[in-house]
Amino acid sequence: MRDMRVGPTGFHDVREANLGTVLRAVRTLAPCSRAAVAAATGLNKTTVSSLVADLIARGLLCETGESAERRVGRPGVMLALDGLTIAAIGIEVNVDYLSVVAVDLLERDLLTRHIAFDARSAGADACAHRIADAVRAVVADPALSHRSVIGLSVAVPGLVDSPGGIVTRAPNLAWRGTPLRSLLEELLHDAAPSPIPVLVDNDANLGAVAEYRGGHLARTGDLVYITGEVGIGAGLLMNGELLRGSAGFAGEIGHVRMVEDGPACGCGRRGCLEALAGIESILRAALPDRFPAGALTRADLADLVETAVDRAAAEEPTAVEALHTAGTWLGRGAAMLVNLVNPAAVVLGGYFVPLAPWLLPSCRSGVRELAFAPDAGGCFVETSSLGLSAAARGGAVAMVDALESGRLPLPPRQVDGVAAADEGAS
Amino acid sequence: MRDMRVGPTGFHDVREANLGTVLRAVRTLAPCSRAAVAAATGLNKTTVSSLVADLIARGLLCETGESAERRVGRPGVMLALDGLTIAAIGIEVNVDYLSVVAVDLLERDLLTRHIAFDARSAGADACAHRIADAVRAVVADPALSHRSVIGLSVAVPGLVDSPGGIVTRAPNLAWRGTPLRSLLEELLHDAAPSPIPVLVDNDANLGAVAEYRGGHLARTGDLVYITGEVGIGAGLLMNGELLRGSAGFAGEIGHVRMVEDGPACGCGRRGCLEALAGIESILRAALPDRFPAGALTRADLADLVETAVDRAAAEEPTAVEALHTAGTWLGRGAAMLVNLVNPAAVVLGGYFVPLAPWLLPSCRSGVRELAFAPDAGGCFVETSSLGLSAAARGGAVAMVDALESGRLPLPPRQVDGVAAADEGAS
C-alpha cells in the first residue's frame, strides 16, 4: 500500500537514521570494512567514515584486526559491534513474579533474575518501587560494571498505551490507568549517571519480539506468541513487525469469548479464553484439593504448576483431564488466530511450557478442527524455549533494536580505559 | 523490527523502484516541478529528469502549464499524472454476480458494470470464459479507447494463493485448486496488443484496498473490510498494508466458529459466522416463505435482499428479528477482530449495506459487549460507500498501486497523437 513518504528517507533526523542504518549493516555483515558498509548501505565512504567514528565514540562499534576476506598484504581494519560498553535492561512484572534480563549490544545475556513477587497484592505503587529496586541492583551488579544502561523496558500483562507509558488496564494486577513510565522515571532519576529511558509495553508483544530475535523460531516473520500466566495474551508479529492495532491494544486473545455463559473471567465477563485456559483456571481444575475454599496464594503459582506437572506425569486422571481440556480451548483460540491472521507459528510461552506435554496434543487437535485453510495454513504450534524470561528478554532486545532505528540515547562517551579493557561479564 | 536490508534500497531494480518513487511523489505533490520531486525524494535533479522522461514516454506522467506556486516571470513546467493513457481493470466474481470496474491512473472510474451471473452453477471453466468475455468487452468499450490496459485483477471469495494465481478453496463457488490466472492468461492472450498481466486475490482484501484508497474511510490505516455476500470474509489493513499472513490466508472470519453445534456451513463445519450471518442464512431466516423447500436460486439474491429491505422497512417482525440476530453475530465476530487486531474501523460491505439500518444497531451492541479494550479500542463500525463494486474497484486500484511500487509493465509507448488528444471518457 502506498506510504505517504515520497522518498527513501524522511526529512528529519537523517543523521540519526543513517547512524542506525550503519549499526544495522555492521550487525548483519560484521566483521566488515567501512567500504563494505558503504556498498551495502548506498551511503558514500566519507559519510560512512564519519558515522562510524560517531558510533565508536558512542561505544556501539569497535575496530578489530581480523579481516573477513583473505587478502594479500596488510589486513583492513574491520568493524564489529562493541559488546563491552552498553547494556539494556528488560523487566517483566506479572501476577506472581518479576523477571529481569540484561543484554549487551549483541543481545547476549549479561544477567537474568527471577523474583517471586505477589504483584497484585502489592499494588501499583509498591510494584513500581520493587521494579526500581531491581533496576538499581542490576545497575550495581558486577555483570554490568563499566557499562552504560541505554534503557529499561517493562513488560506488563494488560492493555498498554506504550507511547504514553501508561498501563490502561491490567485486570490481573488490578491496575487501571497506571502511569508506570513516569513513576519509574521519578524513582530512577538518580540510578545511573544519565537518566535511563523507560519503555512500557505489553508482555505478549515483548515475548513475541524475544521469540523472533532469539527463540528457536527466530526469524519466523509471521509468528504469534501466547503468554501462559494467570492471564493469556498474544503478541502478533506479522512480516517481522509487531501488529499493535490502532490504539496499541491488539492481541487480547485472553478476552475473546469462547463460549456463552462460561466461567467468570477477571475482566468481568464470562467464557473468555483466559477463564478457560489461564494458568489459574488450569490449576483449579487440575488440583482441586489445593483450592478447598477457592483461595489462591498467587506467589505459590510456580509450586502449584510443579505439582500439576508431577501429577500429570503420574497419570493422575483429574490433572490429565484438566490439561487436556485447557489444551482444547487453547487450540480453539489458536484456530481463531489461524483463521484471522494466518501465522506460520503459534508459540506457547510461560507456564504453558512445563505443561506442554499434556496441553499440546489437544491444542493441536483444536487447531486442526477449526482452521479453515488446508493444513491450518501451514501453521504449527510449538512451545517457547525462553520460559518465564521471554518478555523481559524481549524488552531488553527492543531497547537494542531502538538503536538501529536511529533512536540513539547516548551522548559520545568519555573514553574510559577501564571500560575498554573490561572483557564483559556474563 | 529489523529489516534485513541494510540500506534504504535493495540491490536490484533500483531504476524501477526510483520510477515508482517519482510516480508516487508526483501523485502526492502534483502539479509540481521536477525540482520539487527531487527535493521530496532525495534523488538528484539529473536523475529525476531522466526518470520523468521515461515516465512520460510510458504514458504515466504529463507536463502541464500550470504552476502551483505563484511566481514572477515564466511559470515553470509542472508535472502531473497522465490520466489519459492507461487503464486498469478489476473484476469481482461472486456467487451471484460479476462486478467490473475500470479506472485511470488517477483512480477515477472509466466504467463500472454489474452482471448478474450464477457463478456456482457455471463452474470454474465457464466462469473464466465469462470473465474473459467481460474483459474483451471492457477493452473494446469507447470509455477505454486509445488506452493501454496495464492489468486485470480478479477478486474471488475464498482462499487465494495470489503469487501463484490459484484459488485454493472457495466453498461457495465449489472451486478448489483452480488455476484462475493461467486460465485467464490463455483466454486473453490476444485481447490486447500486449499481454494483460493478471492478478488474482481475495475479494475481502481488495475490498479493503478500495475502502482505504477511495471509500469514505479513505486513509484509515488500520481498517477491516467485511464482505457481505453468501460468504463472509475480512480484509485486514494494518498501517495501510494488507495483512495477508504467512500463506496469504488471513481474514477468514466467515469460518471462525461462533457457537458449538450451530447451523451447518458451506465449508462442512458447524456454527461458523457465515452460517449465522452470511446473506443466504439471513435471507432464509428473514424470508422463510421464499424458501419453502430450502431451494435457492442464487441469481435471485439481489431481488431477495430488496424484499428483505422492504419487509424490514415495513417492520415485518420475522425480517426485523432475523436482521437483529444476524447483526448480533456480526458484532460478536467484529469484537474478535477488535480484541485481536484492534482496528480503527470495521466496514461492512456488499449486501450488508442495504440491510445496515437493521443490522448495525445490534452489531454495534455486540462489539461493545465483547470488546475488552475501553470504548472498543476506539473502533467504530460503519458501512461501505462502495457497494457491490468494492472488490472490483480495489483490484483495479491495486494494479495502479503496483506501478508505484516500481512494477511497471509498460514499455515506452509509441507517441500517439490521437491518444494524447483524447479527453478521457468516463
From TrEMBL, chains A, B:
It comes from the Bacteria. InterPro entries: ATPase_NBD, ROK, Tscrpt_reg_IclR_N, WH-like_DNA-bd_sf, WH_DNA-bd_sf. Residues 21-61 form the HTH iclR-type domain. Pfam families: HTH_IclR, ROK. Belongs to the ROK (NagC/XylR) family. This is N-acetylglucosamine repressor. It comes from Streptomonospora litoralis.
